[in-house]
Here is the input.
Amino acid sequence: MDIAKYIDHTLVRADATPDEIRNLCDEALEYGFASVCVNPSFVPLCTKRLLESDIKISSVVGFPLGATTTKIKGAEAAGAVNDGAHEIEMMLHIGLLKAKHYDFVKYDIQHVVEKADGALIKVIIETAFLTTLKIIDACHIAVQSGADFVKTSSTYASAGAKVEDVKLMREVVGPNFGVKASGGIKTYADAVAMIEAGANRLGCSAGVQIVKEAKGA
Amino acid sequence: MDIAKYIDHTLVRADATPDEIRNLCDEALEYGFASVCVNPSFVPLCTKRLLESDIKISSVVGFPLGATTTKIKGAEAAGAVNDGAHEIEMMLHIGLLKAKHYDFVKYDIQHVVEKADGALIKVIIETAFLTTLKIIDACHIAVQSGADFVKTSSTYASAGAKVEDVKLMREVVGPNFGVKASGGIKTYADAVAMIEAGANRLGCSAGVQIVKEAKGA
Here is the structure.
């Protein structure tokens, strides 16, 4: 198993600098990560840095709160794709999910799918805020909305990925949909536990250490 | 001193529900806060709820990371104003400030000022990430960009408002520009300390308790 191919090499801190983003891209090239995951303003820089490589570029939409308007989420996705992003990680509207406005939550995702012009869509459901039943609802809605992945966490809530949540998400979405675990995956053992639970992609800022650990193991 | 008039009654949690936002508006009407501060998707609900009152509506842009594109920040501001927001709180691009791309940081703010169609513009500089010198730079840039306020914090970083930062910000921007303190203002004593340091607006989720404390004091 090449663990690097599971990892979205991620730097979405508010204070990330262009030099740090360039370094993120260089590490992705060196270690062969699945993608780099960055905030929208850094997509053009990644596009330039990763030209002629097979490293994908992921960018975030409505991140990390999910409470901007549907129209802005769509425009942000379209802009990121236009700037070179291959994968879009959108925040679901958590407050409206909690309030059972399921039609709205679905429409919000569908609009992003539509505007993202064929890019892979990961829906961040932010498990830290959700009950088991709401995690199930969120997964069903993501599948019905034409997205490609459900993702556990933005890393800006009180907790990140939990093995039991990843297992549940995989069970709900079935074998042919993506499940991404993120938040608190700091070691090779953490990464393997998430993959065994059903994740087929991992969001990590510690990707380099995880790959080094895997090679040493 | 009517402390309520200093307070932006704030609910920008990712999982805030429509009922909680309605309650926020009702509390603003009851206590006479300066504004309610909400995520963009909730502006229309506030507009309806606060119709024919003098409570302003504040909404956030590029929040809380500041690392989306300038174009999206502008569109988000224009959308919020169109939906009824009177005040826009935009996140400055922290990573590009740290990297000394001052022209970009200024342009980013100017674009929001331009798109916000006369709304009051508060620039969140996120002091937790900044050195003293960078706080000074951020304040100068905000003044030069045509904004109306500098604001200490998004409340999503490691620290909120500090008295010494508010003093510094007031000193740099002078007496005729706004300074908003936010993050960790939980008591009437906290609120008074920030006002004495130079803040003329406060962002609080504990506004109701603060007003009650003020009346009891």
Notes: The radius of gyration of chain B is 16 Å. Chain B has nine helices and eight strands.
